[in-house]
């Protein structure tokens, strides 16, 4: 895995190191809050559909905000946008403390949606800025580290959150989430390397719906010129079609295996560990040339389908955790591969809009998939509810393989 090269990048590039640390801290706080809030929702309502609403609002709020956020990321200073998004999320994250019973749970749901808006500004800006914070020859290594950051803190944050919620109470997890945004902002303040190339004129003029339409049209127009770019742009969304299965981790951890918040934390931590290691494994096995990117995404689809097809029949929670870990080796791999490919293929002047469309598509798809999973979990036995979601991944994956064939043929 060339560990020395990753460590040298962190030592030699303080700007990237600050961004990487900011992402780690912010992701860790997010998962502290998510695991605690999923447990709270299931405890107060007993409804898988309402618990699914937590994840739906996270992804749906992100998707709705993405077109505007993409325009902002290409028009304004990305560093300032990211700092503002972090600071604005501090008081919103503290609003979780007000959700004490079924009558006040709506406050937490509103806060989740508002945090998603902040994430919609932060994440595409970060991805668009990354090629400007590292030299071109180190971009692949930077992407592997950033791609693994989400998994790292899902593994650590989700695992610790289950323990913290069980010992110190959920309020401690919510406070930690708010503090993570403040620390992230402080780290980004100290980055002085430019987050974008100099602009001769502002990009993405317009306002309101016109600006949103222009943002989406610019990204789609660019993708239509290249089957490779279009394939990479649809990769995350392909996986997102069945990603509602992730809701089942909360249902299985708490209800099927009877392990409470600690069980939720364990399964989400296994998911995070897989997403952490996936980018490193993908780079080692398939490389980062165009052909390797496409073949790696195909292999990732197979891994996800097989592991989640076996998940419902796992007799013990530790076996289920192993299957979740393996599935998200694939999930983490495809996320890094598609992100790196888009960064390499997209000019800086429109990169924010392209990544906003990329993230917007996948979060919208995940929101709808999670909503479906929540209803299935209430209508069917949890073990039976998993397989329809796996079937959706098979269907969307088959369509993506067909769509990407011309790009793979040109990469030969």
What general outline do the C-alpha atoms trace? globular
For the CA atoms, what is the radius of gyration? Answer: 20 Å
Strand content: under 5%
Flag low-confidence runs. Answer: 201-209
CATH homologous superfamily placement: MFS general substrate transporter like domains
Enumerate how many helices there are, as a single number. Answer: 15
- What order do the helices and strands follow? HHHHHHHHHHHHHHH
Main sheet properties: none
Q: Specify the CATH architecture.
A: Up-down Bundle
Proportion of helical residues: over 70%
Number of domains: 1
Report the top-level CATH class.
Mainly Alpha
Mean pLDDT: 82
Helix/strand-derived class? mainly alpha
How many β strands by DSSP?
A: 0
Can you walk me through this structure?
By secondary structure, the chain is mainly alpha-helical. It has helices spanning 3-12, 14-45, 48-75, 78-94, 105-133, 139-167, 170-189, 208-224, 227-240, 247-256, 260-286, 290-310, 317-345, 348-379, 382-411. α8 packs across α14. The longest helix has 32 residues, at 14-45. The relative contact order is 0.17. The model is unreliable at 201-209 (pLDDT under 50).
């Amino acid at each position: 895995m060339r560990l020395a090269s990753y460590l040298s990048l962190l030592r030699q590039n303080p700007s990237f190191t600050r961004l990487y640390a900011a992402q780690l801290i912010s992701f860790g706080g997010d998962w502290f809050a998510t695991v605690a809030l999923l447990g709270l929702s299931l405890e107060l309502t007993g409804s898988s559909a309402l618990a699914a609403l937590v994840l739906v609002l996270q992804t749906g709020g992100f998707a709705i905000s993405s077109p505007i956020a993409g325009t902002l990321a290409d028009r304004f200073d990305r560093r300032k946008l990211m700092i503002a998004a972090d600071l604005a999320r501090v008081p919103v994250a503290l609003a979780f403390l007000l959700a004490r019973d079924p009558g006040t749970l709506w406050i937490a749901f509103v806060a989740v949606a508002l945090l998603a808006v902040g994430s919609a500004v932060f994440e595409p800006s970060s991805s668009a800025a990354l090629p400007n914070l590292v030299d071109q020859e180190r971009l692949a290594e930077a992407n592997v580290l950033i791609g693994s950051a989400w998994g790292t803190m899902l593994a650590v944050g989700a695992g610790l959150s289950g323990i913290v919620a069980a010992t110190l109470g959920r309020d401690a997890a919510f406070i930690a989430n708010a503090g993570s945004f403040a620390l992230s902002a402080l780290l980004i303040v100290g980055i002085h390397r430019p987050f974008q190339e100099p602009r001769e004129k502002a990009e993405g003029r317009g306002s309101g719906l016109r600006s949103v339409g222009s943002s989406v049209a610019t990204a789609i127009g660019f993708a239509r010129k290249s089957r490779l770019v279009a394939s990479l742009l649809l990769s995350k969304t392909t996986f997102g079609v069945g990603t509602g299965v992730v809701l089942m981790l909360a249902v299985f951890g708490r209800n099927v295996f009877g392990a409470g918040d600690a069980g939720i934390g364990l399964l989400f931590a296994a998911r995070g560990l897989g997403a952490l290691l996936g980018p490193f494994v993908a780079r080692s096995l398939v490389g980062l040339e165009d052909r390797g990117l496409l073949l790696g995404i195909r292999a990732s689809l197979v891994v996800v389908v097989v592991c989640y097809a076996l998940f419902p029949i796992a007799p013990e929670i530790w076996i289920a955790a192993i299957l979740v870990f393996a599935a998200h080796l694939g999930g983490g791999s495809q996320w890094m591969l598609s992100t790196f490919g888009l960064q390499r293929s997209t000019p800086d002047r429109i990169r924010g809009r392209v990544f906003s469309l990329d993230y917007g598509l996948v979060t919208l798809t995940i929101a709808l998939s999670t909503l479906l999973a929540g209803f299935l979990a209430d209508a069917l036995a949890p073990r039976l509810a998993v397989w329809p979601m796996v079937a959706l991944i098979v269907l969307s994956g088959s369509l993506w393989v067909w769509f990407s064939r011309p790009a793979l043929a040109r990469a030969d």
